[in-house]
C-alpha cells in the first residue's frame, strides 16, 4: 500500500524510503495510465464495430422485410404479435423479480 508506506516514511523521517515510495507510485500510475489508454482505444474500436454491425443489420432487416412483403408475408402483423408476447414476458419477469409470483 503506497499510502501507508509514504506516511510511515514521512513520520519516521526516512527520506530514502519516501523517494523510493514516490518513484514506485509514479511508475505504477504511468503503467495504469498506459493500460487505461489501451483499454479506451480497444473499447472505442469495439463501439465502432458494434455501430457498424447495427447499421448493417438494419439494412439487412429492411431488405428482408421487403422480400417478405413481396412474397405476401405479413411482417407488420408478426412484429406486433412479437411485441405483445415480449411485453407479456417482461411483465411476468417483473412480477417474478418483485417476488409476486
Automatic annotation (TrEMBL):
Signal peptide: none annotated. Gene3D superfamilies: 1.20.1170.10. It comes from the Bacteria. This is Hemolysin BL-binding component. Pfam families: Bacillus_HBL. One of its GO terms (cellular component) is membrane. InterPro entries: Enterotoxin_cmpnt, HBL.
